[in-house]
Amino acid sequence: MHVFGTLPERISLTICLWTTSQTLGYVYLNGQFIDRDWKLHKRMLNFMMVSSPHSENALSEVFGISLSEWNMKAKLFTITLDNNCSSHDIYKANLRDHLSNKNMLMLKGQLFVVRCYANILNVVAQDVIASIHGIIYNIRESVKFVKASPGHEDKSSEIAFQLEIPSTKNLTLDVAMQWDTTHHMLVAALEYKQAFTVLETCDDHYNEAPSTEDWRKVEVACTYLKLLYDSTNVIMATADPAANMFFQEAWRIQLELTHAILVRMFW
């Protein structure tokens, strides 16, 4: 409390919403700031149970208590939100307008509400996955077939050996809500695509093999999923990633996507 009271610098907040399996709702706020010696500090400021599902009133209560207790109204810089906060746009706008009218925000609040970079990547990845969701279903069912049926996993490995497929990855089933696991599943399945095709011809119980065109679409999708996956690893491998790192990663992805659009236009 003493540090926050004497801190001349601005404070950034991170807001996360969490609902337990018993549908109990919680909001927790983290504060980040840089001190006079240019050291980054992170502090958990509040962890409160609120009504579920999360409502504007629940967030308003947490904000009101936190801003008052920690004396932060005149020191806020940005608020970073996770995906679960997307239903509270009206409340966020009201909060920004309220503080802007009192000249408490920099640049009149233009940079006040920002999104978590990991969640932005997640949204983009889900769009990529949605573009081939039918093919992913077939691949998922193919992996299930190989993994669940006695003897079929050995048969697929035998086919891969006979076809001299230089596979370096094991077939794994993804967790549908975690796009990185879907990426891993698709990359491994690509190495076994010939094996799946042959398996369909020699096993009457298996008929889920993707077509040649399907595999081509999977290859394209994996190109962009890898771009997002590599960017995530760059950020996660850094203990305290700074804004310049986020900018470089986001700009690199923007360039790749723009290039892909141009190639498609002139193709």
Question: Can you offer a commentary on this structure?
Answer:
This protein has 267 residues and is of the alpha/beta class. It folds into two domains: 2-115, Nucleotidyltransferase, domain 5 (2-Layer Sandwich); 120-266, no CATH class. The protein has helices at residues 2-6, 56-69, 89-101, 117-130, 133-148, 152-162, 179-191, 193-202, 212-236, 243-266, and strands spanning 11-19, 25-34, 40-50, 76-81, 113-115. Strands 3-2-1-4-5 form a five-stranded mixed beta sheet. The chain starts with a helix and ends with a helix.
Main pleated-sheet profile: 5 strands, mixed
Shape estimate: elongated
Q: What series of H and E elements makes up the topology?
A: HEEEHEHEHHHHHHH
| Fraction of residues in helix | 40-55%
Strand content: 5-15%
Whole-number total of structural domains = 2
Number of helices, counting only DSSP H or I runs of 4 residues or more: 10
The strand order across the widest sheet is 3-2-1-4-5
- In terms of structural class, how would the helical and strand content be classed? alpha/beta
Number of strands: 5
Rg from Cα: 24 Å
